[in-house]
Amino acid sequence: AADKIRLIPQDFFAELCEQIIQHLNHKIPGINTAELCQRIQTSGVDINIGDLAKVANTLSFLFSTAARNNLSTEELVTSLGSGISTLPKHALQVIRHVWNEQGKAIAVSEDARTTATVGQFVDMKWKLGVAMSSDTCRSLKYPYVTVTLTVADPSGQITDKSFEMTIPQFKNFSRQFKEMASVLETV
């Protein structure tokens, strides 16, 4: 990951660290690595989303481990600077600053974080469509619903999951959401 961190400009690396800290503090549901990767690539840096996701996972692990062990800023930076593949100076400066400013907040919330082993629902979008025809069938006129769920996995990576349903399936899906809402109102 240290090799990939060298590619990321300091301002983008700082933004990534800030987002990870906010995610660990439960202030945002996850890190949108796709959007950040696109902005980094637009600035002229050749990095792919897989590499950026690895860096984000590494930093998330680093910050959460440091929080669990109640490391001070100096302990964290010293342990990072003495590793086999040392981090670039700009990365150490950013980590020092972010941990110094917000590290204690993670230590407080880390106990709650360890219990979350599933993803977090972020958003849902749906649209109604009609398949008019295909190469094997001239006249379908078949309605369907496309649902896109935006989910943040436990490491904070935000992904979209899409699926299609028939109208009866969507009605059942909707009914289940209404049941959940009514149960939640009683809590």
From TrEMBL:
The COMM domain is annotated at: 120-187
Q: What is this protein called?
A: COMM domain-containing protein 6
Q: Which InterPro entries match?
A: COMM, COMMD4/6/7/8
Similarity section: Belongs to the COMM domain-containing protein 6 family.
Q: What sections of the sequence does the record tag as coiled-coil? A: none
Its biological purpose: Scaffold protein in the commander complex that is essential for endosomal recycling of transmembrane cargos; the commander complex is composed of the CCC subcomplex and the retriever subcomplex. May modulate activity of cullin-RING E3 ubiquitin ligase (CRL) complexes. Down-regulates activation of NF-kappa-B. Inhibits TNF-induced NFKB1 activation.
Upper lineage? Eukaryota, Metazoa, Chordata, Craniata, Vertebrata
* Record gene name: Commd6
- One Pfam family in the UniProt entry: COMM_domain
Q: Name one GO molecular function term.
A: NF-kappaB binding
